[in-house]
Amino acid sequence: MDDEMFQEFLESMREAKAIMRGEMETSRVFEIKEPDVKSIRAKNKLSERDFAIMMGISVKTLRDWEEGRRTPKGPARVLLMVAAKHPEAIWDSQRPVRVK
């Protein structure tokens, strides 16, 4: 690593520390919105039962999400985003495979 590159690295580390201490703002902020589970289900025109089956979750979990008692996290959140944009991908993965 040459001296110029090392100096850039040190400056980056100083900025990171300042941001962590609250002395400096980040240059960008990424915001990911919570999925609107009820509208995703409505868009797919599915009952609670059928949507829960599609998602591989219980109806109780679905109701908890829709009524705001819980929020989907991790893989469930990502799967909901796929259901919102590409529900056919989920249905395709749920089709039974014929075994000989």
What would a concise description of this structure say?
The chain is mainly α and 100 residues long. The protein contains 6 helices and no strands.
What's the layout of helices and strands?
Layout: H1 3-20, H2 37-43, H3 48-55, H4 59-66, H5 74-85, H6 87-94
Helix pairs in contact: 3-4, 5-6
Annotated CATH architecture of the largest domain: Orthogonal Bundle
CATH-wise, what's the superfamily of the largest domain? Answer: lambda repressor-like DNA-binding domains
- Spans of at least 5 consecutive residues with low confidence: none
- Outline the biggest β-sheet: none
What is the CATH level 1 assignment of the largest domain? Mainly Alpha
How many angstroms does the end-to-end distance come to?
59 Å
Overall description:
There is one protein chain. The chain is an all-alpha fold and 100 residues long. The chain has 2 domains: 1-31; 37-94, Orthogonal Bundle (434 Repressor (Amino-terminal Domain)), CATH 1.10.260. It is built from 6 helices and no strands. Helix 3 (48-55) packs across helix 4 (59-66) and helix 5 (74-85) crosses helix 6 (87-94). The longest helix is centred in the N-terminal third of the chain and has 18 residues, at 3-20. The radius of gyration is 22 Å and the shape is elongated.
